[in-house]
Amino acid sequence: MIRFFVRVIGLLLVAAGFVGVVVDGTRSIANHEVVFAPLGEILFQLFPSTFPMLEPAITRHVSPFLWDPILLTVLLWPASIVAFVLGAVLLWLSQKRPEPVGYLTER
After folding, report:
1. What's the rounded Cα separation, in Å, for the pair 44 and 41?
2. Are 12 and 84 in contact (CB under 8 A)?
3. By C-alpha distance, which of 32, 38, 34, 63 is closest to 51?
4. Hey, CA dihedral for 9, 43, 78, 73, is it positive or negative?
5. What is the chain's percent helix, strand, coil content, to nearest 5?
6. Where does the sequence pass through the membrane (predicted)?
7. CA angle at residue 21 from 18 to 27, to 5 degrees?
């Protein structure tokens, strides 16, 4: 059951990644330059009231090191690529393991 939900989330993230590539592509064509929407910008548009509270919460309760070099770098990556890669990882993790061929013999 959990594998099903992980696969659904993975498929939705892969689809969102493809949609993001199409949107970024049309923006790039319209602006005559390569334009990618960063993940931080998309998250701020989706969660305008709670996203600004993310930085103080992480620096106080988890670690300042996690926020500054790690999460700030990830938030500047293109959102479409992050969604596609995360979805592909979830799909890979949720696939069925292959059945073993034959049986194991003890020595």
Report:
1. 5
2. no
3. 38
4. negative
5. 70, 0, 25
6. 70-93
7. 145
Structure tokens at 78: 């293109």
Give the mean pLDDT of 59-84. Answer: 92
Radius of gyration (Cα) for the chain, nearest Å?
Answer: 19
Type of residue numbered 7: R
CA dist 36 → 11, 15, 61, 80 (Å) = 22, 17, 31, 8
CA distances from 60 to 43, 69, 94 (A): 21, 15, 34
Is residue 11 exposed (0-12), middle (13-18) or buried (19+ Cβ within 10 Å)?
Answer: middle
**Confidence label for 68 from pLDDT (cuts 50, 70 and 90):** confident
- What is the pLDDT at residue 86? 95
Amino acid of residue 90:
L
pTM score of the predicted model: 0.79
pLDDT at position 106 is: 67
